[in-house]
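Marked as duplicate of an earlier ticket. Keeping the data here for the record.
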Amino acid sequence: MWRLYHFTLCPFSRKVRFALAVKGVTHELVQERPWEKRAGFTALNPAGQTPVLQRDTLVLSDSTAILEHIEETLERTPLIGSTPEDRAETRRL
């Protein structure tokens, strides 16, 4: 089961939520308030920042690392295009 620790107003969390939805990944959302520095959350990410994606024993933080992992491990519905122009447009957005 995929679990995303996120803060609703965080744009980086929003980016990961969107990618998971596009890829059709069933996941659990765990609302985090980073300023509370909850011990269980800081054990996953000592920086205390959202988003954090947990999948079995794998824990990823930083939205870019999470998105690259999602793109590389799930072939269905590519997030980034196959041509240089498509990839440039994706990055712009």
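See parent ticket for discussion. The domain at 2-92 is CATH 3.40.30.10 (Glutaredoxin).
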